[in-house]
Amino acid sequence: MGLVVQKYGGSSVADAEGIKRVAKRIVEAKKNGHQVVAVVSAMGDTTDELIDLAEQVSPMPAGRELDMLLTAGERISMALLAMAIKNLGHSAQSFTGSQAGVITDSVHNKARIIDVTPGRIRTSVDEGNIAIVAGFQGVSQDSKDITTLGRGGSDTTAVALAAALDAEVCEIYTDVDGVFTADPRVVKKAKKIDWISFEDMLELAASGSKVLLHRCVEYARRYNIPIHVRSSFSGLRGTWVSSEPIDQGDEHVEQAIISGVAHDTSEAKVTVVGVPDKPGEAAAIFRAISDAEINIDMIVQNVSAASTGLTDISFTLPKSEGRKAIDALEKNKGGIGFDSLRYDDQIGKISLVGAGMKTNPGVTADFFKALSDAGVNIELISTSEIRISVVTRADDVNEAVRAVHSAFGLDSDSDEAVVYGGTGR
């Protein structure tokens, strides 16, 4: 039995009873012969409540101080969980992200991990302790300030520690029984996936699936760390995410043609109207966006009007970055030479993901027919070898997801998927 890293989300440790339930699960793994490192998120909605409190005090809180505030949530969880484990007769030690050796860059509120030096964690577990680590946080290599990794960063903390400690597996415990073919809150007949490749999981995560953070899956793929997504509310086997199919008892799990349908309503669309159709214009637009440190998703350029020599360029980005993008483009309007900007935050994205798509003709046609039959109008289209994404009206997203899910035979004939908590993390 080797070392396992377990991560518990906010819904799993939302209250005292949840913390005690998690403590029993961790102790059970310890009794089974494993060394255990547990990574915890803040309790329930603590992070949101702290953000609300900060905004009541200051409309634009300083990044450094906001990080100092937000990391308190995970410190509360780790200390209480260590107490609960000790109450069960086992030794446990809690560690902040910096004490655990999570080294990051200096970007507050969305820092990236650049190194993990888990000497104290290794010493603790070798001495027979269960190590409890506060997720979502680290320490800047340059300034030595406390940093946070962005929302969902506890997943990344767990995988990074698993890689640094050469763990057998990283178990991500959440409030659903694994990764499903669609969000079970939207599609009640969604199926649980037994195994999914890193590549398909990356596409699902990037397309809006909230069970695993995109950065977490990318880190796991880079260091080939198997992830087991499970529910902390049941004892059921979950979903394995790894580079190759795995054996589960006598059952060999194979890759499905279609892995699932993901959706995302957190994006907005910006249209740059009246762009001169000549070399360098698109570069100028996206340089302005890049300089503002904004990540974009889908891009579409219309055909140039012959009479005017002008075209429109549309792209999607997180709603939270919308105002910043508009300001950056307006600031560079003279150099780019466009006529006007349009902003639309009432959109949604639906994505069909599956590695088998590229060798199965007709997938694209079936996808668009399902949307057509559901009366869903398409505004933007983007594809890769294993993904088709479209942008529609936000009001049409749920119906579109259900239609596509049924059209590809993904609906389950068995019991409906169970959502034990309320957040999906």
Features:
lysine biosynthesis, Carbamate kinase, alpha/beta, Aspartokinase, 12 helices, transferase, ATP binding, AKii-LysC-BS, 425 residues
Q: Topology, please?
A:
Layout lengths: L2 E6 L7 H16 L3 E6 L5 H12 L5 H25 L4 E4 L6 E3 L8 E4 L2 H8 L3 E5 L2 E4 L5 E3 L4 H12 L4 E6 L20 E3 H9 L7 H10 L3 E5 L7 E4 L4 E2 L2 E2 L7 E5 L2 E10 L4 H11 L7 E3 L8 E9 L3 H10 L1 H4 L3 E5 L2 E7 L9 H11 L6 E5 L2 E7 L3 H11 L18
Parallel strand pairs: 1-2, 1-9, 2-6, 3-6, 4-7, 9-11, 10-12
Antiparallel strand pairs: 4-5, 7-8, 11-12, 13-14, 15-20, 16-18, 16-19, 17-18, 20-22, 21-22
GO cellular component, one term: cytosol
Keywords: Amino-acid biosynthesis, ATP-binding, Diaminopimelate biosynthesis, Kinase, Lysine biosynthesis, Nucleotide-binding, Transferase
GO molecular function: aspartate kinase activity; ATP binding
What would you say about this model in short?
The chain has 12 helices and 22 strands. By secondary structure, it is an alpha/beta fold.
